[in-house]
Amino acid sequence: MMIRKTKKPNFKRQEWFRYKKLGETYRKPKGKTSKRRRYEARKPAMPAIGYRTPRNLRGLHPSGFEDILVCNVAELEKLDPSTQAGRISSTVGTRKKITMLEKARELKIKILNKGL
C-alpha cells in the first residue's frame, strides 16, 4: 500500500478573481501577450505533466486502498483486506449494514463509510 504524495497546487483560470462570470474552473491561457502563458515570474502555476499522479496510485482512495462498492456479505467476503476497502452501498438498510460491519470487523476489512 502506497500513500499519495502531498497536495497539488489549486489550478485556477487566468483572471478568475477579476470577473465573476469566468468562474474558477481552469482554462488554458491562449492570449498572444499573456504573461501566464509565457511562464513569467510571480504568476500562478499552470498544469504540467510533472503534476500527474503515479500510475499505481491513480483511482485509489486517499487512504491508499482500492475503493470497492459492496451490497451484501458475500461481496464483502471476496475483498482482499491488504489492498481493498469496502464502501457499503446506500441502498443497504440499517439491519443488514450492522451485520456487514460485524463481518468486516471479523475479517479485518476496512469500511470507508461506517456512519452509524
UniProtKB/TrEMBL annotation:
GO molecular function: structural constituent of ribosome
A Pfam family this chain is assigned to: Ribosomal_L32e
UniProt xrefs under SUPFAM superfamilies: Ribosomal protein L32e (SSF52042)
CDD domains tied to this protein: Ribosomal_L32_L32e (cd00513)
Keywords recorded for this protein, A-Z: Ribonucleoprotein, Ribosomal protein
GO cellular component annotations of the record: cytosolic large ribosomal subunit
Biased composition (Basic residues): 28-40
GO-annotated biological processes: translation
InterPro entries linked: Ribosomal_eL32, Ribosomal_eL32_arc, Ribosomal_eL32_sf
Chain spans, region Disordered: 28-54
Superkingdom of origin: Archaea
Family to which this protein belongs: Belongs to the eukaryotic ribosomal protein eL32 family.
PANTHER family in the record: 60S RIBOSOMAL PROTEIN L32 AND DNA-DIRECTED RNA POLYMERASE II, SUBUNIT N, RIBOSOMAL PROTEIN L32
Protein name according to UniProt: Large ribosomal subunit protein eL32
Species per Swiss-Prot/TrEMBL record: Methanobacterium spitsbergense
Lineage: Archaea, Methanobacteriati, Methanobacteriota, Methanomada group, Methanobacteria
